[in-house]
Design goal:
It contains seven helices and no strands. With about 160 residues, the protein is an all-alpha fold. The radius of gyration is 16 Å and the shape is globular.
Amino acid sequence: MNNREIQIIAEQLKDTWAGDPWFGKPAQQLLAGITEEEAYEQPQGQHSIAQLVWHMANWRQFTISRLQPNSSPDVSLFETADWRPAAPDSEYTFTKGLQELETSQAELLRTLQTLEDSLLDELVAGRNYTFRHLLHGIVQHDIYHLGQIAYITKMLRAAG
Protein backbone atom coordinates (compact mmCIF):
# COMPACT_ATOMS: atom_id res chain seq x y z
CA MET A 1 0.00 0.00 0.00
CA ASN A 2 1.36 3.39 -0.98
CA ASN A 3 0.35 5.64 1.91
CA ARG A 4 3.58 7.13 3.24
CA GLU A 5 2.32 10.73 3.26
CA ILE A 6 -1.01 9.73 4.81
CA GLN A 7 0.90 7.87 7.53
CA ILE A 8 2.92 11.03 8.26
CA ILE A 9 -0.35 12.96 8.66
CA ALA A 10 -1.69 10.18 10.91
CA GLU A 11 1.45 10.44 13.07
CA GLN A 12 0.89 14.20 13.39
CA LEU A 13 -2.69 13.55 14.52
CA LYS A 14 -1.47 10.99 17.07
CA ASP A 15 1.23 13.33 18.33
CA THR A 16 -1.21 16.23 18.66
CA TRP A 17 -3.69 13.99 20.46
CA ALA A 18 -1.54 12.04 22.93
CA GLY A 19 2.11 12.33 21.99
CA ASP A 20 4.84 14.81 22.74
CA PRO A 21 4.06 17.65 20.33
CA TRP A 22 6.51 20.46 19.79
CA PHE A 23 3.87 23.14 20.53
CA GLY A 24 3.05 22.06 24.12
CA LYS A 25 0.59 19.72 25.79
CA PRO A 26 -1.24 17.20 23.63
CA ALA A 27 -5.04 17.33 23.50
CA GLN A 28 -5.67 14.48 25.95
CA GLN A 29 -3.44 15.99 28.62
CA LEU A 30 -4.71 19.54 28.13
CA LEU A 31 -8.39 18.57 28.13
CA ALA A 32 -8.06 16.16 31.06
CA GLY A 33 -7.03 19.05 33.31
CA ILE A 34 -10.10 21.20 32.61
CA THR A 35 -12.92 21.28 35.13
CA GLU A 36 -16.61 21.28 34.19
CA GLU A 37 -16.89 24.84 35.52
CA GLU A 38 -13.98 26.04 33.36
CA ALA A 39 -15.39 24.23 30.31
CA TYR A 40 -18.53 26.39 30.14
CA GLU A 41 -17.01 29.79 30.93
CA GLN A 42 -17.18 32.24 28.03
CA PRO A 43 -14.50 34.86 28.70
CA GLN A 44 -15.61 38.21 27.34
CA GLY A 45 -18.52 36.51 25.55
CA GLN A 46 -16.26 34.33 23.37
CA HIS A 47 -16.59 30.59 22.77
CA SER A 48 -16.27 28.29 25.75
CA ILE A 49 -13.86 25.37 25.91
CA ALA A 50 -16.85 23.03 25.63
CA GLN A 51 -17.94 24.77 22.43
CA LEU A 52 -14.41 24.53 21.04
CA VAL A 53 -14.33 20.79 21.79
CA TRP A 54 -17.63 20.26 19.94
CA HIS A 55 -16.38 22.43 17.07
CA MET A 56 -13.21 20.34 16.76
CA ALA A 57 -15.23 17.11 16.81
CA ASN A 58 -17.62 18.47 14.18
CA TRP A 59 -14.87 19.20 11.67
CA ARG A 60 -13.21 15.86 12.35
CA GLN A 61 -16.55 14.22 11.53
CA PHE A 62 -16.68 16.33 8.37
CA THR A 63 -13.20 15.09 7.44
CA ILE A 64 -14.18 11.47 8.07
CA SER A 65 -17.32 11.89 5.98
CA ARG A 66 -15.34 13.34 3.06
CA LEU A 67 -12.93 10.39 3.15
CA GLN A 68 -15.74 7.88 2.75
CA PRO A 69 -16.48 6.72 -0.77
CA ASN A 70 -19.49 8.36 -2.40
CA SER A 71 -19.85 10.96 0.34
CA SER A 72 -22.50 13.55 -0.34
CA PRO A 73 -21.20 16.94 -1.47
CA ASP A 74 -23.76 18.53 0.86
CA VAL A 75 -21.86 19.99 3.81
CA SER A 76 -24.78 21.90 5.31
CA LEU A 77 -25.19 19.34 8.13
CA PHE A 78 -21.69 20.16 9.40
CA GLU A 79 -22.11 23.89 8.92
CA THR A 80 -25.42 23.77 10.87
CA ALA A 81 -23.84 21.68 13.65
CA ASP A 82 -20.91 24.05 14.07
CA TRP A 83 -20.69 26.08 17.30
CA ARG A 84 -23.22 24.09 19.27
CA PRO A 85 -24.75 25.65 22.37
CA ALA A 86 -22.72 23.59 24.84
CA ALA A 87 -24.11 23.69 28.37
CA PRO A 88 -24.17 21.35 31.37
CA ASP A 89 -27.94 20.85 31.03
CA SER A 90 -27.97 20.33 27.24
CA GLU A 91 -27.25 17.41 24.96
CA TYR A 92 -23.92 19.13 24.24
CA THR A 93 -22.14 18.66 27.53
CA PHE A 94 -18.41 18.99 27.91
CA THR A 95 -18.13 15.29 28.83
CA LYS A 96 -20.04 14.18 25.72
CA GLY A 97 -17.96 16.53 23.60
CA LEU A 98 -14.76 14.97 24.93
CA GLN A 99 -16.12 11.51 24.13
CA GLU A 100 -17.08 12.64 20.61
CA LEU A 101 -13.63 14.12 20.07
CA GLU A 102 -11.93 10.92 21.25
CA THR A 103 -14.22 8.74 19.13
CA SER A 104 -13.62 10.88 16.05
CA GLN A 105 -9.86 10.73 16.63
CA ALA A 106 -9.93 6.93 16.62
CA GLU A 107 -12.28 6.80 13.63
CA LEU A 108 -10.17 9.22 11.61
CA LEU A 109 -7.00 7.23 12.30
CA ARG A 110 -8.73 3.96 11.33
CA THR A 111 -9.98 5.56 8.12
CA LEU A 112 -6.54 6.89 7.23
CA GLN A 113 -5.08 3.37 7.49
CA THR A 114 -7.24 2.29 4.53
CA LEU A 115 -6.24 5.08 2.13
CA GLU A 116 -3.63 5.44 -0.59
CA ASP A 117 -1.58 8.61 -1.12
CA SER A 118 -3.08 8.94 -4.60
CA LEU A 119 -6.24 10.26 -2.90
CA LEU A 120 -4.35 13.32 -1.65
CA ASP A 121 -4.42 15.07 -5.03
CA GLU A 122 -8.15 14.53 -5.57
CA LEU A 123 -10.69 17.25 -4.83
CA VAL A 124 -12.88 16.90 -1.75
CA ALA A 125 -16.58 16.51 -2.59
CA GLY A 126 -18.38 19.82 -2.12
CA ARG A 127 -15.17 21.80 -1.71
CA ASN A 128 -12.59 23.46 -3.93
CA TYR A 129 -9.50 21.92 -2.33
CA THR A 130 -7.68 18.60 -2.23
CA PHE A 131 -7.61 15.88 0.40
CA ARG A 132 -3.99 16.87 1.12
CA HIS A 133 -5.22 20.36 2.04
CA LEU A 134 -8.06 18.91 4.14
CA LEU A 135 -5.89 16.47 6.09
CA HIS A 136 -3.10 18.93 6.79
CA GLY A 137 -5.83 21.42 7.66
CA ILE A 138 -7.45 19.21 10.30
CA VAL A 139 -4.07 18.89 12.07
CA GLN A 140 -3.62 22.68 11.94
CA HIS A 141 -7.22 23.18 13.08
CA ASP A 142 -6.62 21.03 16.16
CA ILE A 143 -3.42 22.85 17.06
CA TYR A 144 -5.05 26.26 16.61
CA HIS A 145 -7.98 25.41 18.90
CA LEU A 146 -5.78 23.64 21.45
CA GLY A 147 -3.85 26.91 21.72
CA GLN A 148 -7.12 28.74 22.35
CA ILE A 149 -8.11 26.20 24.99
CA ALA A 150 -4.73 26.51 26.74
CA TYR A 151 -5.01 30.31 26.70
CA ILE A 152 -8.60 30.34 27.99
CA THR A 153 -7.62 27.95 30.77
CA LYS A 154 -4.71 30.18 31.81
CA MET A 155 -6.94 33.29 31.75
CA LEU A 156 -9.62 31.62 33.88
CA ARG A 157 -7.14 30.35 36.43
CA ALA A 158 -5.34 33.67 36.64
CA ALA A 159 -8.67 35.44 37.28
CA GLY A 160 -9.27 32.81 39.92
